[in-house]
Design goal:
It catalyses: Endohydrolysis of (1->4)-beta-D-xylosidic linkages in xylans. By secondary structure, the protein is of the alpha/beta class. It has twelve helices and nine strands. Helices cover 39% and strands 17% of the residues. Helix 6 packs parallel to helix 8 and helix 10 packs parallel to helix 11. The protein binds (3S,4R)-3-hydroxy-2-oxopiperidin-4-yl beta-D-xylopyranoside. The site of (3S,4R)-3-hydroxy-2-oxopiperidin-4-yl beta-D-xylopyranoside (XIL) has 6 residues, from loops.
């Protein structure tokens, strides 16, 4: 096939990109979006500080715009993200009472998941809950600090009740290297969830890489998580300077694992990237395909 989405579809996978609602009117941007990709992730529009900036007042407008556009172009949507310590409004992070926070968290999840019921391929229910470094434990956050370790399980159970057919993912960065303590911590959590019947369907590997691309163990990591009985997805791929080999290696790692169901790059053109200074994407500022584009297409 001649586009990323169509090529990925040949093996039953999707190839997606992060999308910003404010760019949908940019003709170069939307032309590439609708030609190349069969999945999208709202880059910021489904985050708590957009969806529920003040308590109980929900603003689905920007995300609805993305979901509507995607649906009309036959693109799947990843929901990103329900519970995250970042881009969290201060009215949430300043809560000091556990019961209040529990009801606020569950209301946010239920209202949001319910609004998009039937339209979302997979939700990143909890994002980046594990600490960097060697602890293998959760990071501090208002959720962790007030609700304890159980907040992740509670978020997944609440999301499942709201939309039983959406896939529910845990998503994180720096969990691609099998031997890292952070990877092991997430692995133990997923194994525990599967053992106890906590509803989890998938793990998202953000894959924000430096110039070297993925660690050598990335395919092993994907395979080991998949062996727990979850799908795995590459959810926010970008690679400093976009070397062809680094992109090809990342795609090959996914293609070699049958339960690796899709890949999402975190933006279209280098100028769209949150790491714009590193030119980490598949299209240049003019919207032209970079060498890494061809290496990805070939590896799919
Ligand atoms: C980034 C967006 O790309 C930026 O526009 C925003 O300013 C900050 O967040 N991990 C995630 C994504 O899960 O939501 C982040 O996206 C990048 C890191």
């Amino acid at each position: 096939a001649t586009t990323l989405g169509a090529q990925a579809a040949q093996s039953g996978r999707y190839f997606g990109t992060a999308v910003a609602a404010g760019k949908l009117g940019d003709a170069t941007y939307s032309t590439i979006l609708n030609r190349e990709f069969n999945a999208v992730t709202p880059e910021n529009e489904m985050k708590w500080d957009t969806i529920e900036r003040s308590r109980g007042s929900f603003n689905f407008g920007p995300a609805d715009q993305i979901v509507g556009q995607a649906t009309s172009h036959g693109q799947r949507v990843r929901g990103h993200t329900l519970v995250w310590h970042s881009q969290l409004p201060s009215w949430v992070s300043s809560i000091t009472d556990a019961n209040t926070l529990r009801s606020v968290m569950n209301n946010h999840i239920t209202t949001t998941v319910n609004h998009y019921k039937g339209k979302i391929l997979a939700w990143d229910v909890v994002n980046e809950a594990f600490a960097d470094g060697g602890s293998g434990q959760h990071r501090p956050s208002v959720f962790q600090n007030l609700l304890g370790n159980g907040f992740i399980e509670e978020a997944f159970r609440t999301a499942r009740s709201a939309d039983p057919s959406a896939k529910l993912c845990y998503n994180d960065y720096n969990i691609e290297n099998w031997s890292d303590a952070k990877t092991q911590g997430v692995y133990r959590m997923v194994r525990d969830f599967k053992t106890r019947g906590v509803p989890i369907d998938c793990v998202g590997f953000q894959a924000h890489f430096g110039t070297g691309g993925p660690p050598a163990s990335f395919q092993t990591t994907l395979a080991n998580f998949a062996a727990l009985g979850v799908d795995v997805q590459i959810t926010e791929l970008d690679i400093a300077q976009a070397p062809t080999a680094a992109y090809a290696n990342t795609v090959k790692a996914c293609m070699s694992v049958s339960r690796c169901t899709g890949i999402t790059v975190w933006g279209i053109r280098d100028s769209d990237s949150w790491r714009a200074g590193e030119n980490p994407l598949l299209f240049d500022r003019g919207g032209n395909k970079k060498p890494a584009y061809q290496s990805v297409l070939t590896a799919l």
